[in-house]
Design a protein that fits this description.
The chain is mostly helical. It folds into 2 domains: 186 residues, Chitosanase, subunit A, domain 1, CATH 1.20.141.10; 60 residues. The protein has 12 helices and 3 strands, in the order H-E-E-E-H-H-H-H-H-H-H-H-H-H-H. Helix 4 crosses helix 5, helix 7 packs antiparallel against helix 8 and helix 10 crosses helix 12. It starts with a helix and ends with a helix.
Length: 271
């Protein structure tokens, strides 16, 4: 959303930090997440002389992020929470990749451009669900990068926070984006919750039906008659024997037989 840009940028900049020039960083010298060549291109386009990214101003930082990342991922058009998740992904790995993964999450064609089809697909899902799936996909992507051994810990903290999953007090993109989505649910169309499908004939038993009830229902099925007959004959033979061992064995057979039929029938019901 348009009103979220400054808040989302502040969160992005917390992860980006200040000036760094790590020898293993393919982007080279970076200040507040802006690499030197991006800063050079911005200064050239604005008609300014080239200078070190160390000297970048707050206004320049905001202009670069708005033009090259926020607008590139159509941040003003996205639901709250989704805008931040896609924006931060775009800053870290490029807008096209962020958009393509967003499109894969919502089931749109992954062409790297956000248009009417993608926006409609986004509106058909809950923002928090999109955030979670997108961050998980992003996390799996960075784990495959060759720089993972060097930057993996920082990337994990940035995307997932201090703990995996969603926590209200954590600082990962998945955490903050989920909270932002939850706080603005009335501003985004929510999908209808589909009614549970009707059970097919022969599957009228509920999944949580008790074992005895399941076995009793199964006894009405012709396919079980032979099994119950053989089971009863064997049990009668054992029961006519004397001694506690024989009776204990008979008891085990009763319990075991009921459980076996229950498991087989229950798996058929819920399949």
């Amino acid at each position: 959303m348009r009103a979220n840009f400054e808040k989302c940028l502040a969160w992005v900049l917390v992860h980006e930090g200040g000036y760094v020039n790590h020898p293993k960083d393919p982007g080279g010298a970076t200040n507040r997440g802006v690499i030197q060549r991006t800063y050079n291109a911005y200064r050239r386009r604005m008609g300014f002389a080239k200078r070190s990214v160390r000297q970048i101003t707050d206004a320049e930082v905001q202009a670069i992020y708005r033009e090259q990342y926020w607008k590139a991922v159509a941040g003003d058009e996205l639901p709250s929470g989704v805008d931040y998740a896609v924006f931060d992904y775009g800053v870290n790995s490029g807008p096209r990749r962020a958009i393509k993964d967003l499109q894969r999450v919502v089931g749109a064609k992954p062409d790297g451009w956000i248009g009417a089809e993608t926006l409609a697909a986004i509106q058909s899902m809950f923002p928090k669900e999109i955030v979670q799936k997108l961050c998980e996909r992003r996390y799996q992507f960075v784990r495959r990068l060759r720089h993972w051994p060097t930057f993996g810990r920082g990337w994990t903290k940035r995307i997932m926070g201090k703990k995996m999953g969603i926590q209200t007090s954590d600082i990962g993109v998945i955490d903050r984006a989920s909270l932002l989505a939850a706080s603005n649910t009335n501003e985004t169309k929510q999908p209808d919750i589909p009614a549970p499908p009707e059970k097919a004939p022969g599957k009228a038993l509920e999944a949580d039906t008790g074992a005895v009830a399941v076995v009793a229902e199964a006894a009405k099925d012709p396919k079980w008659l032979g099994v119950f007959g053989a089971f009863g004959s064997t049990l009668a033979t054992v029961a006519t024997s004397s001694g506690p061992i024989a009776w204990a064995f008979a008891g085990v057979m009763v319990v075991g037989g009921i459980y076996l039929v229950y498991r087989l029938e229950r798996s058929r019901v819920v399949a």
